[in-house]
């Protein structure tokens, strides 16, 4: 059985492939899922830790049913996806003498969901997980580590907006723009569907774990290929809007900033998706305090404008359109725009999209389940042709500025696999140098950096205007930096080793190292960044 999980900042959606109808269907897990009229079942991404040592947790709807999300408690976690792989500034709690991290909370959450799935559905053969386009290898590596403990033969990963394009259904030759605006991220992806004449192609997507067989192997039929043309992402989501609303009420009414007022702000925001004015009243019977919060669409738009929300949206759209022009695709050549994620239901967001596209091109029928349903398509003979979102580079000493800097080796936007090696020649820097070390990193695009920190019990992300390259080292730890042992030792002034970089079909960065003095291969096809 093939299952797809869209692990979201606010909600998580699970789908399976129905062999009878040959269509994906959204699953309900009793006790965990919320299902309302005209809304597909979702699992709120909430965790309450009862006993950290025994890993006893409550997740999903059970947290809100018990009111555990409406009080300040260090055992309650929400929006924890945003903290996975981030450099958190501030307080992370210790519970039951166990140090808590967002990676640990996320792992418990996913493992709990999958264990409940196995009880309900039986053994799982294939699992597809999705990830934001702007995520670094550290997040994907964490996802891979979580998967290794699961009794599932095949596990794959797919970009969230690319999966959404498949979930809505594509016509061959169409250019589809997916705008995925969820609780934690805003991702844009431009995808085109084509027919691949090569019947031997395997639609592996991006494998995290592989068993003795692959459900994604195609039959002797022509393969549909979803080609990713352009993509752009930013750490901006509905949770940021919730926090901005709370800050507004803290400033105008003196309301406290805590998890309760944040949840009430989220409810106001959701109401404004269908009504002009929203109202929330809450009475705290323990402290005999009451909160009343009223908000209309005009005030919300002013709040968003104050935080330069629309400037960020425009900058991201311009970045994507600039990438598309490399393929001679202009805005008029985009056939459909698919809106995905809970935050796209805000009228102000939909009005922003209409500034670029005619209303008849815009589709918003499946905002919550398109990603999970589309991810299942890679088990049904659809191949994904993708490119590298980030660059890979090596560290060097910048003599002019007297500091370390980074030299890109593989540029972002490069399709993979990269079979023709990219070469780098290095020499010794000191007399009798016994080895050569090289630090390789994943380089984010130059943009305003994102600061992640705690404000009280809220996890806050803040965009900083300073332009800087985001660097995530891949091998900067003891025992991993050394790439070549030199025998005899090296001396300055001559080229000593040649390094050849490649990226395979599974998106793993590999290096081959040749000793130019001895004409020996010191490393051959060595993995540098492995996500499993």
Layout of helices and strands:
Blueprint: E1 2-6, E2 11-18, E3 23-26, E4 34-36, E5 39-44, E6 46-51, E7 56-59, H1 61-65, E8 76-78, E9 88-89, E10 94-95, E11 98-99, H2 102-121, E12 126-131, H3 137-148, E13 154-159, H4 160-168, E14 175-181, E15 186-196, E16 206-209, E17 223-234, H5 238-253, H6 259-271, E18 277-284, E19 289-296, H7 297-306, H8 309-324, E20 336-340, H9 347-354, E21 362-363, H10 370-375, E22 382-385, E23 391-398, E24 403-410, E25 418-427, E26 433-437, E27 440-443, E28 447-455, E29 458-468, E30 471-473, E31 482-490, E32 495-503, E33 509-515, E34 520-529
Parallel strand pairs: 1-12, 9-28, 12-13, 14-20, 17-22, 20-21
Antiparallel strand pairs: 1-2, 2-3, 2-5, 4-5, 6-7, 6-8, 10-11, 13-16, 14-15, 15-17, 18-19, 23-24, 23-27, 25-32, 26-31, 27-30, 28-29, 32-33, 33-34
Largest sheet: 8 strands, mixed
Seen as an oligomer or otherwise, the chain set is single chain
What is the mean predicted local confidence, pLDDT? 83
Strand percent estimate: 35-45%
What overall geometry do the principal axes of the alpha carbons give? globular
Number of helices: 10
Structural class: alpha+beta
- Structural Rg: 24 Å
Alpha carbon gap, first and last residue: 22 Å
The count of DSSP E runs of length 2 or more, i.e. the number of strands, is: 34
List unreliable stretches of 5+ residues.
197-207, 210-221
> Portion of residues in helices?
10-25%
């Amino acid at each position: 059985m093939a299952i797809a999980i869209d692990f979201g900042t606010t909600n998580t959606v699970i789908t399976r492939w129905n062999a009878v109808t040959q269509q994906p269907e959204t699953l309900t897990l009793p006790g965990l899922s919320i299902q309302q009229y005209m809304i597909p079942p979702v699992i709120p991404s909430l965790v309450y830790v009862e006993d950290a040592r025994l890993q006893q947790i409550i997740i999903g709807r059970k947290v809100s049913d018990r009111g555990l999300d409406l009080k300040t408690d260090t055992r309650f976690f929400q929006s924890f996806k945003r903290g996975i792989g981030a450099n958190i500034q501030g307080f992370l709690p210790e519970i039951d003498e166990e140090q808590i991290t967002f990676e640990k909370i996320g792992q418990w959450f996913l493992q709990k969901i999958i264990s409940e799935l196995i009880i309900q559905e039986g053994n799982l053969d294939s699992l597809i997980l999705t990830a934001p386009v702007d995520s670094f290898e550290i997040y994907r590596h964490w996802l891979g580590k979580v998967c290794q403990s699961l009794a599932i033969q095949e596990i794959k990963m797919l970009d969230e907006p690319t999966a959404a394009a498949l979930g809505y259904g594509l016509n061959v030759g169409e250019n589809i723009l997916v705008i995925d605006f969820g609780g934690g991220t805003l991702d844009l992806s431009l995808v085109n569907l084509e027919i691949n004449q090569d019947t031997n192609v395997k639609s592996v997507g991006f494998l995290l774990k592989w068993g003795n067989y692959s459900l994604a192997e195609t039959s002797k039929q022509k393969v549909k290929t979803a080609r990713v043309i352009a993509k752009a992402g930013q750490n901006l989501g509905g949770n940021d809007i919730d926090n901005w609303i709370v800050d507004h009420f803290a400033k105008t009414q003196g309301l406290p900033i805590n998890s309760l007022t944040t949840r009430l702000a989220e409810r106001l925001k959701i109401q404004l998706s269908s009504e002009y004015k929203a109202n929330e009243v809450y009475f705290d019977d323990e402290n005999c305090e009451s909160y009343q919060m009223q908000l209309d669409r005009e005030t919300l738009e002013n709040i968003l404008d104050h935080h330069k929300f629309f400037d960020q949206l425009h900058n991201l759209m311009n970045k994507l359109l600039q990438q598309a022009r490399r393929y001679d695709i202009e805005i008029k050549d985009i056939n459909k725009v698919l809106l995905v994620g809970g935050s796209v239901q805000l009228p102000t967001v939909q009005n922003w999209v209409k500034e670029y596209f005619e209303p008849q091109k815009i589709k918003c029928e499946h905002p919550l389940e398109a990603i999970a349903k589309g991810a299942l398509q890679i088990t049904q003979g659809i191949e994904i042709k993708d490119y590298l979102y980030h660059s890979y580079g090596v560290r060097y000493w910048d003599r002019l500025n007297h500091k370390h800097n980074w030299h890109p080796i593989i540029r972002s936007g490069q399709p993979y696999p990269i079979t023709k090696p990219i070469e780098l020649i290095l020499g010794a820097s000191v007399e009798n140098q016994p080895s050569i070390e090289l630090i390789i990193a994943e380089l984010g695009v130059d943009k305003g950096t994102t600061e992640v920190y705690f404000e009280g019990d809220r996890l806050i992300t803040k965009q900083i205007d300073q332009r800087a390259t985001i660097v995530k080292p891949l091998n900067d730890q003891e025992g991993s930096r050394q790439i070549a042992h030199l025998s005899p030792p090296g001396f300055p002034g001559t080229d000593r080793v040649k390094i050849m970089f490649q990226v395979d079909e599974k998106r793993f960065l590999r290096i081959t190292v040749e000793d130019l003095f001895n004409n020996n291969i010191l490393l051959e096809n060595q993995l540098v960044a492995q996500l499993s």
